[in-house]
Amino acid sequence: MWHEKMRKLEEEIIREASTEKAFEHIKFLVEEIGERIAGSMEIEKAAKYITEKLSEYGLKTWIDRFPIYHSYPKDALMKVIEPEQTVIEAKPCGHITSTLIEGISGELVYAGAGGYEDYKGIDANGKIVLVEMSWSPPRPEKARIAYEQGAKALVIMNWGSIENPVIQKGAVKSVWGNPTPEGWEKIPKITVISITRAAGEYLKKLLKEHGKVKVWLRGASENLWVKAVQPMADLSVERREFIIVGGHLEAWGKTAICNSSGNAMMMEIARVMAKHKGDLKRNIVFGFWDGHEIAEAAGSAWFVDTYWNIIDENCIAYVNIDNPGIVGTEVPTVRCSIELKDFALKIVEEVWGKTGVWKQPYMGGDESFMGIGVPYISFSTEYTEEKLRELNYASLSPWIHSEADTIDKLDPELYDMHMKFYIKLILRLCNKLIIPYNEKELVKTLMINLEKYDETLRGLTNISINDTIERCETLLKLMEKLEQAAREIEEESEKRGFTDKVETRAEIVNKALIRISHELSNIIMTEAGRYDYDPYGYYLTGKPIPILYKSINKLLELKGRENEIRLWETKILRDRKKILDALNNSIRIVELSLRVI
To answer: Is the pTM of this model over 0.85?
Structure first.
């Protein structure tokens, strides 16, 4: 009965959603506004446009204003001094250490994609490092690593084909969101500039042919605090639980792909959802984040910091809409938290008629919700591996962050399919009686990695983390019982409808599911934990249980160095307590829930 009603509602909303209307918004944002950087009149104009439109659609709207640590790139130039003399056009990144007008010079070295493994065998200390633009690691992480390696400057060659004339814009603060006193000290103190693909290939060729290349460069940016302008909206559905649908408003270049496409899709989804808000069991909050491109997700981080209590108690998911419908992409790819993986991939199969690809979040985009533990989900089609090789791994297209990011780079038919996916996803998150988390998969993932680490430790040291594995086993058994209770509640709702008893029992189960995610997610995906943020694109966020990964790998490197071994053993013992705490809290939550259901 309820499922049939929801199926019809889903079909109706999908019919009403209009790609044409979304493209009207894209056209305005791209052609009437264009680049919209924090602190500018352009982003103010965009915020006004969005709130006025969403108010017309019947949503409650407002604009949050708050300080963010921002940067305005100024100018840059590069020259080859030896073995020949050449001038290279360049652009500075945001949040760099500016050179003096006379610039700096030094030996050039090439470090691939700019990750830790790319520096093996390279002495970067005091050198100027050339790296490839890629998203492995992202630009801010390249800068953080280069600074850590002692480089005096970093030069980033663009991705795409050698014919691509684009110099990509970007920023390199690394520290997530607004810095704290401790975070301020961690901002990379390094000059970073960007050049074309062709210029980068030329420099690589010089290095290959001559071995030693000397370059000169200068770059400048103005780093300062500005007032963010962040348009927000919600459907005002009178329910405690809610979903956040977000996407960054601040954008470089012409902004079609990144991220007028996402902003417009959010607006159109808001329009059709507002027409049917009486049929929704949960509220939807829409966030158009400022401070994304340069202040490294400062807008979404401020939102989490400011509304922490409400988010921690009642937010069931963060849905990020960014770059939908890029021309030439075709591989449906979900990047989401483990507990939403099955749920999201099922919707991909419905819309695309084939199995999608799943990837774990990596502390990029606006993943400010990873620490607090709100499950994250984003979706877009990606290039095939063959196409990626052709584009030198320009995974987000060769055009983003430039004046080439125009409307013709979007595929309307593909965009429409993205909209269908997001409508199904958001509507089901709103209306599922029991939140569609697979918490057992979350716990199993944690346990499998703990078992691997425990086995590794047995060959290195006398310390053990076996007690964390035992706690996982206990939690899994309890999760079986909670899942059974959830199934019984759903069966009862089908027979008797949403009675007060059904609603109350479902609320107890949902509260337990929310708490488990909020306890365990940060252990699985972050080093910083619940209350702080890892650096943007931080290399450890892609590793299993980051707080153990680094320590155990250090032990593997330290054979015979007793003092250092004892230090890292102590760190493992103490970090193990964080894992035990999260597991024990989860166990208590499920035990209490089972008693009162």
So the answer is: yes
